[in-house]
Write a structure and sequence with these properties.
Radius of gyration: 18 Å
Bound molecules: inosinic acid
Number of strands: 7
Strand content: 15-25%
Order of helices and strands: EHEHEHEEEEHH
Number of helices: 5
Helix content: 25-40%
Largest sheet: 7 strands, mixed
Length: 206
Amino acid sequence: MLTKPYKLVLATRNRGKFVEIEKLLCGNEIDLLSLIDFPEVPDVVEDGSTFEENALKKARFVSNTLGLPALADDSGLCVDALSGRPGVMSARYAGPGSDDRLRYTRVLDEMIGVEDHLRTARFVCVLALVTPEGDERIFRGACEGLILKEPVGKGGFGYDPIFFFEPHGMTFGQMDLDTKNLVSHRGIALKMFADFVKGLKSSGSA
Ligand code: IMP
């Protein structure tokens, strides 16, 4: 699936994501590249109705364009009382030009009157691995939590301040990044991917 020279392109221009994944894969003899190395590759429109569709669309496009294995992600917050919204719309939930605060405020507003025990939600992260030979793999991480009635904590990004993680008794906005990475949807999906790569390596494929 991944063959020598073990090149893998991350379908992102986000330096933070690149560093996070590089840290997880170090020691696996993978030459990790990202779209920062290929500025000519255009952005893909994320118009799928599921995280899987969006992640696969990005990974397929980058792999086809560059002729290299590609790994793409899509993630977001799914709130039960909102029928799974914002879901794949997480990054643009309050319309164009909005910021994180406007997006989580929209979620809070839509949940006015929702009782505590019905405020369940989860962050989801899907990673898609696609190779030029047409092999495709999906890794899905999820992290359960509760939506608070007002934001708490100034750390993190996105919906972190309204997402209460019960096992640690705090919001993601109050959590340091290393702790968050151990329990988060993204951390779980990346760990699944790293374990998969280690498995390939020990079986001689990567
Ligand atoms: P993308 O996967 O980079 O497109 O991100 C989707 C959107 O989901 C982000 O812009 C955030 O609004 C939200 N999101 C994804 N992961 C997290 C997280 O760990 N904390 C807070 N918000 C998140």
